[in-house]
Amino acid sequence: NRPPLAEMLGQIHHTLHSDRILPDRLLELVRLRVAFWNQCRSCMATRMPEGLEDGVTEGLVCSLERPQEANDLTPAERAAIAYADLMATDHLAIGDETYEGLREHFSEPEITELAINVAYFVGIGRFTATLNIVDGLPERFRGSEERITPWDSELAKHKDGG
């Protein structure tokens, strides 16, 4: 309904993907974690090709259920996910301590890139969630009123040996 705005959003999306300094794997994990908080079904069902190429597997996605306990996430990934969790759920809780924790793993330009990506994921994902675009998605992402996850609980149980 607003082609100039859609074009501008497309340019932002393109820039966020084409001028990265952060690993694709990290940004895909963060994107999927934010998609969970947003309850954006199309975002949760989608796997970005660059993330897959950088090692994001469904087993790794299952780590997002309890990221601070996951053995297959790096400390930097856990810090980025914790930051994304706060941005998506309690952004005013982010303070100097949060940024100091990020500085243990990331440079200032990387923190800025992470923050801009997370802001984009939160905003666009919430908008997309309100559109409830589920046609063509796998069955587990359609038709349910309950909270869903980008990780498959059955796969997570198997991964954890349960």
Mean pLDDT: 92
| Helix and strand element order | HHHHHHHHH
Radius of gyration: 16 Å
State the end-to-end distance: 48 Å
- Shape descriptor: globular
Give me the secondary-structure category.
Answer: mainly alpha
The number of helical segments is: 9
Largest sheet: none
Can I get a quick summary?
With 162 residues, this protein is mainly α.
Using brief descriptors, characterize the structure shown.
162 residues; mainly alpha; 62% helix; globular
Record the SSE blueprint.
Layout: H1 3-18, H2 24-38, H3 41-45, H4 49-53, H5 58-62, H6 75-89, H7 96-103, H8 108-131, H9 153-159
Helix pairs in contact: 2-6, 2-8, 6-8
Architecture overview:
This protein is mostly helical and 162 residues long. Helix content is 62%, strand content 0%. It is built from nine helices and no strands. The longest helix has 24 residues. The radius of gyration is 16 Å and the shape is globular. The model has no long low-confidence stretch (mean pLDDT 92).
